[in-house]
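Researcher: Here's the sequence for the chain we discussed earlier.
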Amino acid sequence: MMKYFFLVFVVCFQFGFSQNKKINLKEGDIIFQSMNCDLCKAINAVTEGFDGKDFSHLGLIHIQNDSIYVIEAAGRNVRLTPLEVFKTYTSETMYIGRLKRKYRKYIPKAIRFSLEQLGVPYDEAYLYNNGSYYCSELIYDAFLSAYEKPFFELTPMTFKEPISNQYFQVWIDYYENLKIEIPEGELGCNPGGISTSNKLKIIGVVK
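Model: Thanks. This is the structure I predict for it:
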């Protein structure tokens, strides 16, 4: 029994991380957060992130003159947001993903691509490749540009409740307001899916 306990302790020590450990953010880290909104709840119901966590937003860390910013698609457009402002979006713990070493050489080009998109409108329709960006779509295209082939994964999107297989009412109202059909089954990406990519590792949290 003691031997088993020791083995479990060693494994947790080597491969886990403490939520109290201070993370030194680096250029190209991806920050994941869960926001409290009706659309967010619908997103969380059909997607799953690292360790079963719910993530409804993400951004790309960019460091300028020792100041930390997040490149994000949020609000009206793609924008550069101070980290301290980004933190105010949620009261939940935020998780940090870092690319595995062999992929880090693609970060500079991904950052350049993302900065070139500043001001591009927010993609309210959540449709890929329509001249606008939602949060994870921006990150997907940034690394697609840098890697010169798909880096993260596009999967069919669903806007239906898992149990009833009926559309969430919040999505029905949302797309009726946009006057477009719900893009059920169209390819897209989401923060949870990116957080589980085998090309990155969740290294810790930011509160």
